[in-house]
Amino acid sequence: MLDDAGTTQPPKAAPGPTFSVVAPVFNEAPGLPEFHRRLAAVMTALHASWEAIYVDDGSTDASLDVLQGLHAADRRVAVLALSRNFGKEIALTAGLDHAGGEAVIVIDADLQDPPEVIPELVAAWREGYDMVYAQRRKRHGETWLKKLTADLFYRLMQGVGGVRLPRNAGDFRLISRRALQALLSMREQHRFMKGLFAWVGFPSKPVLYDRAPRAAGRSKWTMWQLWNFAIEGVTGFTVMPLKLATYVGLAVAVFAAIFGGQIVLRTLLFGNPVPGYPSLMAVVLFLGGAQLMTLGVMGEYLGRVFNEAKRRPLYLVERYLPSEAPVSTAAVVQGDAVRGFGEE
Ligand code: UDP
Ligand code: MG
Description:
alpha/beta, eight-stranded mixed β-sheet, elongated, binds magnesium ion, 47% helix, Spore Coat Polysaccharide Biosynthesis Protein SpsA, Chain A, binds uridine-5'-diphosphate, 16% strand
């Protein structure tokens, strides 16, 4: 939402229960009732007030109907329907914006993140950790190609990204209120959540778990989307690719000097029988390629500057059905009663 200064500020969530569970939903209708059943069983056993915020990210199947059914049947369910599909990262942000809990749990709605792990996350939070992330022990039901590319990506981000991404950790995690506030203060359009989570810092702790295969439906990630996701990660956290051009240029210049010297010498010593078409072609093509690639890299960054400069709101809310979970006692004491975004 835009404030007077024209910046996109996070809407302040109303004080809420002890736990807010945020689950982005995109075409997950078949699996949702089962997901909520398992989630509710786990959360109820924690003996604290909680709410589940389902963010419908412009689903084209019956997901929103199913969610509205859940909302009608269970007052701990909040449904936030976005105006269209904004992508998981933005859907997550929308959910987090509306989470009033003292601790917020982020979980996929496809049952790949087992809700049964949540008590362990909560236990670590009660020990005082701000960011408790679930770390995969094994990757079931994923191709070797996905495993390999994921591995490469983590290495790259650790090497040049400037943020230490925990390996094999996704978005499934628990975030304390203060870490959440820090997270939500970053309103960039290009949201690489894994990176933002790591950027925030605060005492963090992994909890190991086994990632299950999808319960129903299918993953929306194509190889092309994963590639773009990786570019998002790199450009969001490092300008190293921009510097790369400097060093490639430097290397080419050194090579050119040596090559040029060699040609002069050869001509002086042996005369000039005009050879060199292959080497000429090689140099021209190489330089052309290097220049286009550098332009492309600059374009990637320029495009991002362009997108950020527009300062559009991150998402638009089509419908918001808040939960009626009891407010946690701590939130009442703090007394920061502010109306939630999109309640009007
Ligand atoms: N999702 C979403 N918007 C999208 C794509 C996915 O909200 O545009 C949700 C999806 O419903 C699921 C979670 O994000 O709850 C993870 O998506 P997916 O299972 O496709 O990703 P993967 O588990 O393969 O990383
Ligand atoms: Mg999934």
